[in-house]
Design goal:
- With about 350 residues, this protein is an alpha/beta fold.
- It is about 35% helix and about 20% strand.
- It has 2 domains: about 70 residues, no CATH class; about 230 residues, Rossmann fold.
- The chain is globular and about 65 Å long.
Length: about 350
């Protein structure tokens, strides 16, 4: 079998079709993918060995983000959104950002929920910490758990209500987005407020957003709102990269039985109906909430745990979807040389 005939595990297309760069020398193979996948290197090496019919492969897995649609040195902007509140959108956003960082990407996180910012608490940033200003205009992001971050929670205390009209909210978002010194980023994850209002329109009009992820639960009302969110992004020409279904099931810690407290299969049905992938099904687990509330989200607290594995797989999948949409069919560059 040829290396270029290997089918990418997330996109279902061959590496030849995707134009993956491969350098091969004996059993040593260097592969450059358009999405970060450091956590899958060992498994990918085994899959390649099986594909080629050899005992083992020494894989050097690399990541090249390529040119994006972003602004400045930010290559890709990915919005994490939900049609309604209370579905775990912010928890999903921070864990996806952390997952991408662990997979080998340079990542920023913008908390665009002006009225109800929560990322400061989730990241464990002290309430009295404020971002520094450069030249009186440029804001330095606050670094937390390896991420460059910005949130309205850094500007006000948690008890300060944001009693602002729409134009003020839009102006605040633009300042945090465009005046923050993000530096060189592969992905800027934007934690959107719930719904389909001013912030969503401002983001889509001010910067080129590469794609969106919709967070929902299996409940019928949440799925109804998720459909609205997907259609909203389509109307402003932002591709939906997939759906994350939170609180999909509860797994009994004693017997292992799975109970579907909020319904079953709803996220998969909506994904199939609208032609987008279901990126992940996350359990209803107390640790996810406790770790986020404690300022140490799951991917940071338990990087090798099962739930972190779900987030990391979802992060790989969504960025693979983004890369696949931008990749034209081509032929991989393969250089063969003897040891």
């Amino acid at each position: 079998m040829r290396i270029e005939d290997f089918v990418d595990p997330y996109l279902g297309r061959t590496w030849g079709e995707l134009g993956v760069r491969v350098l091969s020398s004996g059993h040593r193979i260097a592969v450059t993918l358009g999405y970060p996948a450091a956590g899958r290197q060992q498994q990918l090496a085994s899959e390649l060995a099986a594909h080629l019919g050899v005992p083992e492969v020494e894989l050097d897995l690399r990541f090249a983000p390529g040119d994006g649609r972003g602004f400045g040195r930010v290559r890709h902007i990915i919005a994490v959104a939900s049609g309604k509140g209370g579905v775990g959108k912010s928890t999903t956003a921070v864990n996806l950002a952390l997952a991408l960082d662990r997979e080998g990407a340079k990542v920023g996180l913008l908390d665009a929920d002006i009225y109800g910012p929560s990322q400061g608490m989730m990241l464990g940033v002290p309430q009295d910490r404020r971002p520094e200003m450069k030249d009186g205009q440029t804001i330095s992001p606050i670094k937390a758990h390896g991420l460059k971050t910005m949130s309205m929670s850094y500007m006000v205390t948690e008890r300060t209500p944001m009693v602002w009209r729409g134009p003020m909210v839009s102006s605040a978002l633009q300042q945090m987005l465009l005046q923050t010194d993000w530096g060189d980023l592969d992905y800027l994850i934007v934690d959107m407020p719930p719904g389909t209002g001013d912030i969503q329109l401002t983001l889509s009009q001010r910067v080129p957003v590469s794609g969106a992820v919709i967070v929902t639960t299996p409940q019928d009302i949440a799925l109804l709102d998720a459909r609205k969110g997907i259609e909203m992004f389509r109307k402003v020409d932002i591709p939906v990269l997939g759906i994350v279904e939170n609180m999909s099931f509860y797994c009994c810690p004693n017997c292992g039985h799975e109970a579907h407290l909020f319904g079953e299969g709803g996220g998969r049905r909506v994904a199939a109906e609208l032609g987008v992938p279901l990126l992940a099904r996350l359990p209803l687990d107390l640790s996810i909430r406790e770790q986020a509330d404690g300022g140490n989200p799951t991917v940071a607290a338990e990087p090798d745990g099962n739930i972190s594995g779900i987030y990391r797989d979802a992060a790989r999948h969504l960025t693979a979807e983004l890369w696949g949409r931008q990749t034209q069919a081509g032929t991989p560059v393969i250089s063969m040389s003897d040891d």
